[in-house]
Amino acid sequence: MLRAFAITVLIGGAALLSFHSTVFDPPEEQTGTASLSFHCTISDPHEGKTDCRKIIGGTVAYLKDEKVTLSERKMRAIARHVYHESERYHIDYRLILALMKVESNFKNDAVSCKGALGLLQIKPSLGKTVAKDIGMKWKGDGQLHEPDKNIRIGVHHLSGLMKDFATLPSALHAYNGGASRARALDARKEHPTVRFASAVIKEYSKTISVLPEP
Questions:
Q1: CA 62 centroid distance within chain
Q2: For the whole prediction, is pTM greater than 0.85?
Q3: Nearest in space to 100 (alpha carbons), one of 88, 92, 2
Q4: CA–CA distances in Å: residue 136 to residues 85, 129, 175
Q5: Residue 141 burial by CB count (10 A; 0-12/13-18/19+): exposed, middle or buried?
Q6: What is the pLDDT of residues 92-102, one digit of tens each?
């Protein structure tokens, strides 16, 4: 008789050790002890899945093609943060990259004329509010130049807008011009300007064509 069981060790919510065991019981007419086979696998909590590795690797290649002037280590960190936030909020990572391209051209030190900062161009007032909502300790505007913080805040904000507005162009317009202004336009049945949304959607079409599906 064959019996199998598995034990998974969780560290920080991630599966790091997975043990798979098989027990072989001898037939009743035979004497002896059961034999036990034991197999252990160790997984990377960040890039443990083949799809994850493929997407992160593809994103790094895409950033290189876009002439991003960062070390490969930093590009890989951005790719990893984008991937994990896309999974958290169920947003296509290729859309996040398209938004990032249009907003900052992948420059984490970017500052707009209106004071928006970082990769996804977050205003400090919005950053502080979102940080509180998601339980992130706010240590000042400089956090928005840190890729992990900027991406976390930006994708959370985008996710909320995509839920609040009926179409992607409307959500992108709200991201660029402010949700209150976008809602006021909706209330007056006026159409928003499409320049920013069109630029992001055009870039999104490009990322879809060159990057693997999520």
A1: 16
A2: no
A3: 92
A4: 14, 10, 21
A5: middle
A6: 999 999 999 99
- Partnered with residue 38 across adjacent β-strands are 21
Domain residue extents for the chain: 2-42, 50-210
8 A C-beta contact, residue 176 and residue 161: no
Q: Are 75 and 68 in contact (CB under 8 A)?
A: yes
The pLDDT tens digits for 38-82 are: 333 334 444 445 689 999 999 999 999 999 999 999 999 999 999
Burial of 65 (0-12, 13-18, 19+ CB in 10 A): exposed
Residue pair 182/165 in contact (Cβ under 8 Å)? The answer is: yes
Output the six-digit token pair for 138.
Answer: 């706010």
Alpha-carbon torsion 82, 84, 86, 88, what sign? Answer: negative
102 and 94 Cβ atoms separated by less than 8 Å? no
Domain 50-210's class? mainly alpha
Sign of the CA dihedral running 156, 107, 100, 197: positive
Give, in order, the Cα–Cα distances in Å from 109 to each of 104, 191, 195: 9, 33, 24
DSSP classification of residue 141: G
